[in-house]
């Protein structure tokens, strides 16, 4: 369970710090001319924050 928690935290932090890179890895790699929309950075950062929260909760739950 702790491994999953650490992965959630790492992926969440990557989404918070590098939202454009994460978008490119998920979508832009298939279309070289694609660009993220205006709200993409905000959505990816919110999702990353939620992943970090889930990772912290899973990590605390895994310690018990």
Write a brief caption for the model.
With 64 residues, the protein is mainly alpha-helical. Helix content is 78%, strand content 0%. It has one domain.
Shape: elongated
The residue ranges in which pLDDT falls below 50 over 5 or more consecutive positions are: none
Count all strands and give the number: 0
Q: How large a portion of the residues is in β-strands, by DSSP E?
A: under 5%
Number of helices: 3
Can you summarize the main beta sheet? none
Number of domains: 1
Structure commentary:
By secondary structure, the protein is an all-alpha fold. The protein has one domain (2-63). The longest helix has 24 residues, at 40-63. It is elongated. The protein has helices spanning 2-17, 19-28, 40-63. It contains three helices and no strands. The mean pLDDT is 91. The N and C termini lie close together (11 Å).
Could you give the topology of this structure?
Layout (H helix, E strand, L loop, with lengths): L1 H16 L1 H10 L11 H24 L1
Please tag this protein with its features.
64 residues
